């Protein structure tokens, strides 16, 4: 198995190769890569892979600041049912 | 997998009466209050879900509710994280399945 | 139906060492406190932690039980199995959105701890591959062994501590090996870096790494740590082979873990051709380290700073555990990855700070908080498990930055 076929985002099965391709076509920040490849967009909302994606992006340009366009966190940050959301109650 | 009865440092759990539940229709037992994922692991079941697109098998990964990999269906509750959801008597649990996809034209039986 | 609303003086998110310690102090000073946690039982990661120190066992579960008992006696409401999915400031109240309804309080303490950084390896989506924390929880909290025989990939403080716990609990381990070289492992894939890390640990932390460092030193000599001298077959730590010249190439199996392909590496972390072989295991634990779990701080509008010594991006906070957001406090691993004892001291400090800001202490607030700050320093200096040697200096920088930004008398 080539290293490039290594999966980074388990939820959406996004590989390093896909990150590389997206980066080549101009997706240069974590956020842009997320939009392009769906890495960090799956069920865990990046809780597992956002560190990897951010480290990978930083690795492409080690002189860049670590906090350039980080992925945001938006509620709901935990899975809830529509019922819980609507009623504010279980 | 093997259960630890008498933990060398932490000792025994309080005496518990087993409960019955089903997984994909198959009868199983576990202990009340323990997460579904723990009861299934104790029964040697590793695959909890199929990735919805690829169908690749997935099992328990983080065990504390962060990764969502262990989500499966519980009758009457919908999709739950099996690492956080305590087992209850009579629960019917089903593995998460690969889904049909209108865009790719993938149809599942 | 009107949503159920619960009013407390203080809502604490996270029933681990920091949250429970804060709750008991705050309740002691007369605040009404609600602690919320997503896990079915309180205690956080302490529930599965234990280590040997100076000849006796430090058992996290016992500490947790004592704290829970204290909290219950003081009337603290501990709500487990409740997920917090957001929070919003409405006038002077925080509205904390949970799976069991909205809860209101003027002050919120986030003690959400840390989450694991993965160590991606080919085949890591196979059932049977789990984070090392998952192996700890299954074994020590749920009493179910993660498998018949396993391998740990990644060498760090967390990996060593949990490897020891698993071994004591009777889980069979084929060894601890280096992660595959690549963009994520970085220096973690280099034998020399790992050896230096372990030596550094043994120097800083008298136990349990003293024994470990001592063993390595005996084999290699303290002077001139040369990784190429590290025995190819590894050395045994407790009962676990630590293999600093072996890397995991891939995890194999059709629908579950059946084996791991291992290979020897040279000092640069490059695979030595022809050294590949298969090790039969039925589970793999990946150890990539920890990062502060701070989603809620971000949702609440708290700014972040990047501090690699403390695990990455963390909410900006003062030495008194305040954030720049009014009424929002942090304690424990959300402020940086350190041991449970430090988290507990931070929890007590946050409680003192919250009570002081609530006017509970009158004129004595500052001195109470100062005492609690000193205690955090003391505990940190004597903590046996040090996650990073640069922590005290990194913390000084954060607090200096806070002072310059918020206390400079603008």
Describe the structure concisely.
Chain A: InterPro entries: BFD-like_2Fe2S-bd_dom (IPR007419), BFD-like_2Fe2S-bd_dom_sf (IPR041854). Chain A is mostly helical.
What is the structural class of chain B?
A: mainly beta
Spatial strand order of the main sheet of chain A: 1-2
- By CATH, the superfamily of the domain at 19-94 in chain B comes out as 2Fe-2S iron-sulphur cluster binding domain, sarcosine oxidase, alpha subunit, N-terminal domain
Treating each run of at least 4 consecutive H or I residues as one helix, how many helices of chain A? Answer: 4
Q: What's the quaternary structure here?
A: heterotrimer
Give the topology, please:
The complex is a heterotrimer of chains A (90), B (109) and C (410).
Chain A: E1 7-9, E2 14-15, H1 16-24, H2 30-37, H3 50-60, H4 82-87
Antiparallel strand pairs in A: 1-2
Chain B: E1 6-7, E2 11-12, E3 19-23, E4 26-30, H1 36-42, E5 49-50, E6 57-58, E7 71-74, E8 78-81, E9 91-94
Parallel strand pairs in B: 3-9
Antiparallel strand pairs in B: 1-2, 3-4, 5-6, 7-8, 7-9
Chain C: E1 6-7, E2 10-13, H1 17-28, E3 33-37, E4 50-53, E5 56-59, H2 60-73, E6 77-80, E7 84-90, E8 93-98, E9 101-105, E10 107-110, E11 114-116, E12 129-131, H3 132-141, E13 149-153, H4 157-168, E14 172-178, H5 191-204, H6 209-220, E15 235-237, E16 240-252, E17 259-264, E18 277-280, E19 283-286, E20 290-292, H7 295-299, E21 304-307, E22 312-315, E23 328-330, H8 340-357, H9 365-382, H10 391-406
Parallel strand pairs in C: 1-9, 2-3, 2-10, 3-6, 10-23, 12-19, 13-14, 13-19, 14-16
Antiparallel strand pairs in C: 4-5, 7-8, 8-9, 11-20, 15-16, 16-17, 17-18, 21-22
Structure, explained:
The complex is a heterotrimer of chains A (90), B (109) and C (410). Chain A is mainly α. Chain A has a domain at 3-64: Arc Repressor Mutant, subunit A (Orthogonal Bundle). Chain A has helices at residues 16-24, 30-37, 50-60, 82-87, and strands spanning 7-9, 14-15. A two-stranded antiparallel sheet of chain A has the order 1-2. Chain A is globular. With 109 residues, chain B is mostly beta strands. Helix content of chain B is 6%, strand content 28%. Chain B has one helix at residues 36-42, and strands at 6-7, 11-12, 19-23, 26-30, 49-50, 57-58, 71-74, 78-81, 91-94. In chain B, strands 4-3-9-7-8 form a five-stranded mixed beta sheet, covered by helices on one side. A two-stranded antiparallel ribbon of chain B has the order 1-2. Chain B has a two-stranded antiparallel ribbon with strand order 5-6. The termini of chain B are far apart. The model of chain B has no long low-confidence stretch (mean pLDDT 94). Chain C is built from ten helices and 23 strands. In chain C, strands 12, 13, 14, 15, 16, 17, 18 and 19 form an eight-stranded mixed beta sheet that branches. A five-stranded parallel beta sheet of chain C has the order 6-3-2-10-23, covered by helices on one side. A four-stranded mixed beta sheet of chain C has the order 1-9-8-7, with no helix packed on it. In chain C, a hairpin with a 6-residue loop joins strand 16 and strand 17 (259-264). Chain C is elongated and about 70 Å long. Mean pLDDT of chain C is 88; it is low at 201-210 and 220-226. The interface between A and B is medium-sized, with 12 and 16 residues. Chain A: Residues 7-55 form the BFD-like [2Fe-2S]-binding domain. Chain A: It comes from Cohnella silvisoli.
């Amino acid at each position: 198995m080539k290293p490039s076929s290594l999966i980074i985002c388990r939820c959406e099965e996004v590989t390093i190769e896909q990150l590389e391709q997206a980066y080549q076509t101009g997706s240069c920040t974590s956020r842009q890569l997320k939009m392009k490849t769906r890495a960090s967009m799956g069920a865990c909302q990046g809780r597992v892979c956002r560190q990897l994606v951010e480290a990978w992006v930083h690795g492409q340009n080690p002189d860049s600041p670590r906090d350039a366009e980080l992925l945001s966190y938006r509620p709901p940050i935990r899975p809830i049912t529509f019922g819980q959301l609507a009623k504010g109650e279980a | 997998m093997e259960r630890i009865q008498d933990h060398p440092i932490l000792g025994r759990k309080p005496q518990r009466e087993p409960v019955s539940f089903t997984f994909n229709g198959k009868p199983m037992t576990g202990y009340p209050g323990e997460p579904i994922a723990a009861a299934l692991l104790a029964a040697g079941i590793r695959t909890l879900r199929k990735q919805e697109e690829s169908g690749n098998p997935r099992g328990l990964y983080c065990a504390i509710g962060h990764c969502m990999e262990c989500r499966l269906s519980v009758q009457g509750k919908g999709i739950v994280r099996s690492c956080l959801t305590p087992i209850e008597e009579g629960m019917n649990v089903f593995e998460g399945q690969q889904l049909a996809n209108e865009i790719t034209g993938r149809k599942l039986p | 139906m009107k949503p159920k609303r619960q009013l407390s003086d203080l809502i604490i998110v996270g029933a681990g060492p920091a949250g429970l310690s804060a709750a008991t102090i705050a309740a002691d000073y007369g605040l009404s406190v609600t602690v919320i946690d997503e896990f079915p039982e309180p205690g956080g990661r302490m529930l599965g932690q234990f280590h040997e120190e100076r000849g006796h066992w430090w058992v996290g579960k016992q500490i947790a039980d004592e704290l829970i008992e204290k909290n219950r006696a003081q009337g603290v409401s501990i709500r487990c199995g409740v997920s917090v999915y957001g929070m919003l400031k409405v006038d002077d109240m925080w509205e904390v959105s949970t799976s069991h309804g909205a809860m209101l309080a003027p002050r919120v303490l986030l003690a959400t701890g840390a989450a694991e950084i993965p160590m991606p390896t080919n085949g890591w989506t196979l059932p049977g591959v789990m984070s090392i924390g998952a192996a700890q929880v299954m074994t020590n909290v749920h009493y179910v062994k993660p498998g018949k025989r396993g391998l740990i990939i990644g060498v760090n403080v967390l990996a060593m501590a949990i490897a020891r716990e698993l071994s004591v609990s009777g889980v069979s381990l084929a060894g601890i090996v280096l992660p595959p070289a690549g963009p994520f492992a970085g220096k973690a894939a280099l034998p020399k870096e790992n050896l230096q890390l372990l030596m550094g640990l043994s120097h800083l932390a008298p136990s349990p790494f003293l024994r470990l460092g001592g063993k390595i030193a005996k084999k290699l000599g303290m002077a001139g740590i040369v990784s190429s001298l590290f025995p190819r077959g590894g050395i045994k730590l407790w009962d676990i082979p630590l293999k600093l010249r072996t890397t995991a190439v891939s995890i194999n199996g059709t629908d579950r873990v059946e084996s791991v392909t291992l290979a020897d590496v040279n000092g640069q972390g490059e695979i030595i051709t022809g050294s590949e072989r298969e090790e039969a295991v039925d589970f793999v634990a990946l150890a990539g380290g920890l990062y502060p779990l701070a989603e809620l701080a971000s949702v609440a509008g708290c700014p972040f700073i990047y501090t690699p010594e403390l695990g990455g991006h963390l909410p900006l906070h003062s030495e008194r555990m305040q954030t720049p957001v009014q009424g929002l406090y942090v304690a424990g691993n959300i402020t940086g990855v350190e041991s449970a004892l430090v988290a507990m001291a931070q929890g007590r400090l946050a409680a003192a700070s919250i009570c002081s800001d609530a006017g509970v202490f009158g004129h004595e607030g500052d001195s109470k908080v100062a005492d609690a700050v000193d205690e955090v320093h003391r505990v940190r200096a004597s903590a046996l498990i040090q996650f990073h040697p640069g922590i005290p200096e990194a913390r000084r920088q954060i607090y200096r930055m806070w002072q310059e930004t918020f206390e400079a008398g603008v």
